[in-house]
Batch of 2 targets.
Target 1
Amino acid sequence: DAKTTQPPSMDCAEGRAANLPCNHSTISGNEYVYWYRQIHSQGPQYIIHGLKNNETNEMASLIITEDRKSSTLILPHATLRDTAVYYCIVRVLNTGFQKLVFGTGTRLLVSP
Amino acid sequence: SAVISQKPSRDICQRGTSLTIQCQVDSQVTMMFWYRQQPGQSLTLIATANQGSEATYESGFVIDKFPISRPNLTFSTLTVSNMSPEDSSIYLCSAIASYKNIQYFGAGTRLSVL
């Protein structure tokens, strides 16, 4: 199972882009990279996922390196409400079941 | 996105008792899961809830302590049995929508055991 490594915490000024890195050097060719976030006292919220191409949706952009060993989640204009723990997850396939295995994540603090 | 409702949202229980948490999803889902989040920690998968059959438990979790039912495609329960203060955690229900390959989470049940 591929493991992920994220910095424990990051700071970002409101209105600026937040770039959250993730290393997944042992990722397999058929494993996707998923990003979730958890705002205090809430359940995790899906943000975006990708296999090898860059992806963008209304919440964020996901940049995956060509060798797929790392990725970056970009929040283009961070707001105070983006303060949360961000989890980078590689989806695991095990005996036909699919499950998300969470690491420790990055605690992003957006300040005024 | 799938809407996942959990009940109760929080509870305070006495040690030695059991609590059953309900999870209802508003649309067809392929898989349902239960996670635990201990204070200040990340999420840990307890088990995969299988429709009409026994749940598949992760290492460190057993059926006697965390019995799970899933009588149909959109409903599941998790029971925390013979509780101790160490069971104080947030318990989260999760599901993969059948129409897209995304896993969604409920708001969680915050359990305190005295």
Target 2
Amino acid sequence: AAGVIQSPRHLIKEKRETATLKCYPIPRHDTVYWYQQGPGQDPQFLISFYEKMQSDKGSIPDRFSAQQFSDYHSELNMSSLELGDSALYFCASSPAGPPSNYGYTFGSGTRLTVV
Amino acid sequence: KQEVTQIPAALSVPEGENLVLNCSFTDSAIYNLQWFRQDPGKGLTSLLLIQSSQREQTSGRLNASLDKSSGRSTLYIAASQPGDSATYLCAVAPYYNTDKLIFGTGTRLQVFP
């Protein structure tokens, strides 16, 4: 079965650089969520999209932005990277918009390391 | 504010034991609760989803129960195997905002042969 695809799997950037993370949801899933998991921490919600519109926003820095495209894939853009942005970034998708009766399917994540 | 706690934080057991992992949440107004497994540095694999109207869900050797009124869920793992070694996370979808899964801090399980 198709899963949530995230790219790249690993990314190393220098401070003040820009990074773009991509997420391809499961086919026919129209809702995408982004989470950030720091070392030894639980995942924290960043932002979500439903039908290409921002649905909700969590503790996402102003340096970050995201969007969902017409094919439902989503991109998380991170600018002026800081050392503290080093984390595992997860994307999840669900069908039929929030609230979800079907739970959330997560991708394998993108590990971002800022040096 | 919804808070999710998992006990124990870590558990090390011999193969074959039956295990109970606990998850507590402070606000009973939840839409559903989901249990995940995470291998080191890897993604989150969904194990079981329990809707707020349900009492339990089963998948293979896994059984999850939900007592919404008392704010508790348990994950029962029967006949544990070394391959079960991972971190187990529970996450609740608050009724007022189901976009934001609230995660517990996890139980790190090690099953040794």
